[in-house]
Amino acid sequence: MKEYIDISPEVKKAIANNKPVIALESTIISHGMPYPENVETALKAESIITENGGVPATIAIIKGKIKVGLSKEEIDYIGKQGVNVVKASRRDIPYIVSKGVDGATTVSATMFIASLANIKVFATGGIGGVHRGASDTFDISTDLEELAQTNVAVVCAGAKSILDLEKTLEYLETKGVPVIGYKTDFLPAFYTSTSPYKLSLRLDSPEEIANLLKCKWDIGLNGGVVIANPIPKEFEVEEKLINKAIDDAIIEMERKNIIGKDTTPFLLGKIVEITEGKSLKANIELVYNNCKLATEVAKLL
Ligand code: PSU
Ligand code: MN
User: Fold this and answer.
1) 23 phi/psi in degrees, rounded to 5
2) Is there an atom of ligand 1 within 6 Å of 163 CB?
3) Structural domains for the chain
4) Does the pTM exceed 0.85?
5) In angstroms, what is the span from residue 16 Cα to ligand 1's centroid?
6) Which of 17, 26, 62, 158 has its CA 20 to 30 A from that of 81?
7) d(CA 46, CA 57)
8) Which pLDDT belongs to residue 2?
């Protein structure tokens, strides 16, 4: 195993000393945002974690080596390469490692690698889920399966309504994945702080969240937890604007016959275009907000 993984000295030391380490994904850098905002956001996310007393570990695969804790140069490299880097979900890891190529890890791959390194908390923007029209396309993100089996808590701003939010929640329920609403009773919809979909569980402090995680894993209930942290009100995108942008982006996606792993990056980019950058600004701010909460939870775990 050792020959495949390279954990940075800072992260290694932090893990050995039981310091709060927070995993970060790299698909959000390569496929989730344009350059240079992607690199700026990734670096600032790391400094927010550091300022709040945590240790960031951005995860990617570089030249076939699984990296936990990227350097600034490596983050810049992934950001500049953008969509030329393979979007790496769980199923892609063996190919990328055996070929010695680069891979930007999605939520599923990042969770898997974080758990190998014994990192329990992971901050990102949004998780994948059940896509609209999944009853025809079968397009259900492997993120949900990873959440079902890997012991990592994912702090996110809920899920975008490019997904079928209701089916996503049903799927997570089937798989036994707790979805915690942080200070909210409803699933946050990424660009907006709420949605009509009621959650079964609401917690109002990082202490309560850390406690739930400890209990879950102590009991031997394997699998992840979604910590749904609403975007702060001041950074929300106006609901009418974002819904229209999402609908239009989906129409264009269908017209262009974009399917499979290309759908999420295409829709994100299109929505940035249609909203003239408003969605990007919201996306950046919600990531920072998630980094703060993730650090608080990791400190208590
Ligand atoms: N949602 C975002 N930004 C992202 C993603 C989702 O707001 O960058 C990325 C994450 O890496 C997530 C992946 O794991 O998309 C899901 O892709 P798919 O739907 O193909 O499973
Ligand atoms: Mn998919």
Assistant:
1) -80, 145
2) no
3) 5-300 (3.40.1790.10)
4) yes
5) 31
6) 158
7) 8
8) 84
